Amino acid sequence: MTAAMPSASHSPWRHLPNAISMLRVLLVAPICWLLWNEKWPSALALVAVAGASDGLDGFLARHYGWQSRLGGMLDAIADKLLLVSCFVILAWRQETPLWLAAIVCGRDLVIAAGALGWRVLIGPIDPHPSLLSKACTLAQIIYLLTLLLALACWPMLRSTALAWLVAVLCVASGAHYVWQWSRRAWHTRHAP
Fold first, then answer.
1. Main-chain phi, psi angles of 13, to 5 degrees
2. Which of 87, 89, 130 is nearest to 105 (CA)?
3. What CA dihedral angle connects 91, 96, 99 and 104, to 10 degrees?
């Protein structure tokens, strides 16, 4: 007779995705220090680890049923902290266009303000990133990795087209969030 497998909620590994998200939060400070000091190869390595961990924690949470409200919030916070910090420092260092950093930061400010407004006016929010938002995050990570690779050793990899793709996805996903959550808020507030 074989022992029954523990359910996802009782697995000793169920907190692993949250731990991976926390690791990504902890990587923000050393990545910022490396970017500020123009240690491009080391920054590239840590951003690559952070990018891979973003995919890994999501896969583990979905595949094994280890999803939680805390995990969703940690994942979003880790992404925002990492990406916004990188874009701000790289814009300050004049390695990425200021307009691109402004779009990336502006999108995240709009989303954060909307989430806060929802929490204050309606109640708890259950974050569910859209496919467009996931594409935007992936494009930002690819842009940062490509830029850092260009700064570290292959200058020919700098791409204006990739910068424009990130900008378009940021604007589109930001507009989608505003439309989607405004509609939900209206229906929630006006439900019979």
1. -95, 0
2. 87
3. -80
Q: Looking at this protein, which amino acid is placed at residue 82? A: L
Local structure of residue 39 (DSSP, 8 states): -
pLDDT confidence of residue 9:
59
Q: Which helix (H) or strand (E) holds 133?
A: helix 131-152
pTM over 0.70: yes
Residue 70: the pLDDT is 75
Q: How many CA atoms lie within 13 A of 82 on its CB side?
A: 31
Low-confidence ranges of the chain (pLDDT < 50): 1-7
Please enumerate in sequence order all residues whose Cβ is within 8 A of that of 140, keeping only pairs 6 or more positions apart, or say none. Answer: 83, 87, 104, 166, 170
68-110, pLDDT tens digit by residue?
A: 777 777 888 888 899 999 999 999 999 999 999 999 999 999 9
Please tell me the distance from the alpha carbon of residue 134 to that of residue 94, in angstroms, as a whole number.
27
How far apart are the C-alpha atoms of 57 and 123, rounded to whole Å?
Answer: 27
> Do the beta carbons of residue 28 and residue 40 sit within 8 Å?
no
Neighbours of 155 (CB within 10 A): 9
Q: For residue 171, which of 74, 99, 73 has the smallest C-alpha distance?
A: 99
Cα–chain center distance at 56: 13
Share of the chain above pLDDT 90, in %: 48
